[in-house]
């Protein structure tokens, strides 16, 4: 029995960078989810302070605030992983610190600058080198 081995190619993007392979619609869905979570958090927080409830009763407003806070935490982790692997950013530490300290303001800015406007390399007819990455030749 003969075993064939195929040489491994170097990736087109640097280690584990996945944003460049996302389609425009996937990037848009991430932006919409981010906007919905931020708006839900803001509206729930304002409403929970405006409408006092007895301590023994938890209202729908408080539950939506809890869910939005949890979702904001998950989105923050998601975006921190993007910032940590982004070869095109010179200020990774600054982006990550901003995401931790002020996520409602920094996450939309990071989404616009580094997710929505990231180069797109999934289409072989339009592939080009990603700054900081290496382009591998296309398979025949």
UniProtKB/TrEMBL annotation:
Origin superkingdom: Bacteria
Transmembrane segments: 28-51, 63-82, 94-113
Keywords from the UniProt entry: Membrane, Transmembrane, Transmembrane helix
Listed name of the protein: Uncharacterized protein
Protein's organism: Sandaracinus amylolyticus
